[in-house]
Amino acid sequence: MRLTVFGATGRVGHTLVHDAVGQGHEVTAYVRDPKRLGIKHGKLLVKKGSLEDGTTVAEALRGSDVVVSAIGARDATHPVSVVTHATRAILAAMKAEGVQRLVSVGAAGLLPHAAGGLTGEHGLPPFLRHAFEDHRGALQALQESELDWVVVCPPVMPSGLKTGKYRVAVEALPTGGRQVYAEDVADFTLKVATGTEYHRVRVGIVGD
C-alpha cells in the first residue's frame, strides 16, 4: 500500500513511518526538515516542503492509497491553527488528486460527550484549550468534506514503548483509561490506515 504521512518527524508520525516501511508499505514522508526524520529505507521517499505550498502537498500525496496526518502544534500555550490549516490544505490536495482516505491523529477532547457536544467543551483544563480549539477546527473540516476519514483520539500520550496493549472504541473513549503510549497510537493508526474497518468516525484509544 502507498501512504503519504504528514507530521512524520513527530512522535506518532516518526514511529508510524518506521513501522510502515518495515511492513513493506511504500511511504512518502512530507517534512519541513528531512534531517529530523532520521530514517532511511528503500520503501521511503522523503519530500521536503511546506503545508502552505499546495502544489508540493498535492505532489506528495499523488497516487497514494491513504494519507496520514500526525500533525500537532509544538506550542499550544497561545491560540494556534496549525492542525486546522494543515487539515484543510491536505483535504484540498486530496480532492484535487482524487485521493479518498485520510487518517488523522486528534485528541480525546474531540469525542462526543454524554451531555452533548464534544468532550473538550466540558471541563477542559485551561492549558489544553488552544490545542483543543485547533483540533476542533480540523474535525469540522473533515466532517464538512466528502472524503473518507478517521480520527484517532488519544488522551494523555507519553512516549514509551510499543506494547500492543490498548483498547479502542468508536465515538467514545474506552472506560478506565487515562493515557496511551505514542508508540501504540502509531501502531493503531497504521492499522486503521491500511485496513478497512473504520469510515468517517472518531475512534478513542487508551492503554490497556
TrEMBL record:
<protein>
    <submittedName>
        <fullName>Flavin reductase</fullName>
    </submittedName>
</protein>
<dbReference type="GO" id="GO:0016646">
    <property type="term" value="F:oxidoreductase activity, acting on the CH-NH group of donors, NAD or NADP as acceptor"/>
</dbReference>
<dbReference type="Pfam" id="PF13460">
    <property type="entry name" value="NAD_binding_10"/>
</dbReference>
<dbReference type="InterPro" id="IPR016040">
    <property type="entry name" value="NAD(P)-bd_dom"/>
</dbReference>
<feature type="domain" description="NAD(P)-binding">
    <location>
        <begin position="7"/>
        <end position="193"/>
    </location>
</feature>
<dbReference type="InterPro" id="IPR051606">
    <property type="entry name" value="Polyketide_Oxido-like"/>
</dbReference>
<dbReference type="InterPro" id="IPR036291">
    <property type="entry name" value="NAD(P)-bd_dom_sf"/>
</dbReference>
